[in-house]
């Protein structure tokens, strides 16, 4: 049965499609658990440019997920800018359809997905939960869909295409300053 809590807008549905692929031929038993984790507030997401960093709490364990999103194509960036030029631009489903009909669908493409769990499958439950949480967030504020694709940086720079960034996924332990993480009570 379809779950209308996630991806009820065209902007959010793109992220639901990462979890519920149209090429999937049989039900994935992890999807209800992933949706439940999102509803229970077990997923915390932060954005670092085009990188989505998430921490998922499941049982007693905590898992870190990093998803890198490809920059929006120059054609899609130009079309979104053209469509948004107005007095009160609002990211509606009609706007999404207009951009897609112009030949530049604003759907995201994933460059890489990295999860710290030991799951052997292609997609773990933590990754699925992040996709659903992103869909929920984007349904509430579609600007997030443009933000994670670097749209605002590209349109502010007035460049043809956003410059790809290579995010640091790991920090060396000796690079951390303990004084910044521990507070001594006086």
Describe the structure.
Strands 1-2-3-4 form a four-stranded antiparallel β-sheet, covered by helices on one side. It contains eight helices and four strands. The chain has helices spanning 10-19, 31-39, 74-84, 93-101, 125-140, 143-147, 151-157, 178-181; strands spanning 43-48, 51-58, 61-69, 110-115. The chain has a domain at 34-72 and 107-157. Residues 158-168 have low confidence and may be disordered. 38% of the residues lie in helices and 16% in strands. It is of the alpha+beta class and 186 residues long. Keywords: Metal-binding, Zinc, Zinc-finger. Residues 95-135 form the SWIM-type domain. This is SWIM-type domain-containing protein.
Number of helices: 8
* Fraction of helical residues: 25-40%
Show unreliable segments. Answer: 158-168
Q: Give the terminus-to-terminus CA distance.
A: 57 Å
Domain SWIM-type: 95-135
Organism: Streptomyces chryseus
Protein name: SWIM-type domain-containing protein
InterPro entries: Znf_SWIM (IPR007527)
What's the layout of helices and strands?
Layout (H helix, E strand, L loop, with lengths): L9 H10 L11 H9 L3 E6 L2 E8 L2 E9 L4 H11 L8 H9 L8 E6 L9 H16 L2 H5 L3 H7 L20 H4 L5
Antiparallel strand pairs: 1-2, 2-3, 3-4
Protein name: SWIM-type domain-containing protein
Organism: Streptomyces chryseus
InterPro entries: Znf_SWIM
